[in-house]
Amino acid sequence: MKIGVLANYLDTRKDFRDLLDLLSQDHHIVAFVQKSDVQKMGKLLPAVTVIPIQALTGISRIIQLLWQYTYLVFGKLPASGYNYYLTEHIKLSNSSNKKWARIIQSSLLSLSKITPQIISYDQFLDLVSELKKSFLIDTDIDMFLCFTEISNDFIFAKIIQENKPVWTYVYSWDHACKMKTFSKRTNYLVWNEGIKEDLIKLQHIKAEKIKIWGATQFAPIEKFISHEANRTEKLPYNFQYIYFGFATGYNALARQEVKYCHQIATHLKTILPDWKLVIRPYPFQKNKNIYASLTTLPNVIFEESTLSDDKFLKIKHAKAFLHFGTTMGYEAIYFDTPSYLLDIADQKKDPLLHGFVHQYQNDKYLNTSDSLVIKSYDELINIFENFARGQFRHCPNPKIRSDTPLHSLPVLAENLMSIIAINNTNLLAL
Question: Which residues touch 385 (CB under 8 Å, ≥6 apart)?
Answer without folding.
Answer: 271
